[in-house]
Amino acid sequence: MRSECVLGAASDSGQEAPRDTWFLQGWKASRRFLIKGSVAGGAVYLVYDQELLGPSDKSQAALQKAGEVVPPAMYQFSQYVCQQTGLQIPQLPAPPKIYFPIRDSWNAGI
């Protein structure tokens, strides 16, 4: 006599069949898609909100603002991680000063 495996039923070997149905597998895949789509949508909104695709002087001001804000935020985050986990993160060297004038290279290829 042939034994057939039914989802959720016990097999002859005494092990249970996997309980993930096609619906749950589809939900897991769509959840990943929703998370990635939300991150991408947030990035598009940030670019639009900060007017990064607008005039070059606004783009350069936003890049300069990011250069001033990001290093202290990374330091605060590393201090938070050290405090929460008890790990010691070695002091990193200061980031290099980056000066990239967008206005000088704007439409340079035309």
Q: Can you describe this structure in just a few lines?
A:
The protein is mainly alpha-helical and 110 residues long. Helices cover 56% and strands 0% of the residues.
Describe the structure.
- Component of the MICOS complex, a large protein complex of the mitochondrial inner membrane that plays crucial roles in the maintenance of crista junctions, inner membrane architecture, and formation of contact sites to the outer membrane.
- It holds the Pfam family QIL1.
- It is a single chain.
- The chain is an all-alpha fold.
- 56% of the residues lie in helices and 0% in strands.
- The protein has helices at residues 22-49, 56-85, 102-105.
- It is flat and about 60 Å long.
| N/C terminus separation | 78 Å
Radius of gyration: 26 Å
Helicity, in percent? 55-70%
Order of helices and strands: HHH
Beta-strand segment tally: 0
Residue fraction in strands: under 5%
Question: What sort of overall outline do the alpha carbons produce when their principal axes are compared?
Answer: flat
Structural class: mainly alpha
The major beta sheet can be summarized as: none
Q: Unreliable stretches, pLDDT < 50, 5 or more residues?
A: 1-11
The total of helices stands at: 3
Mean pLDDT: 76
Any chance you could write out the topology, listing elements then pairs?
Layout: H1 22-49, H2 56-85, H3 102-105
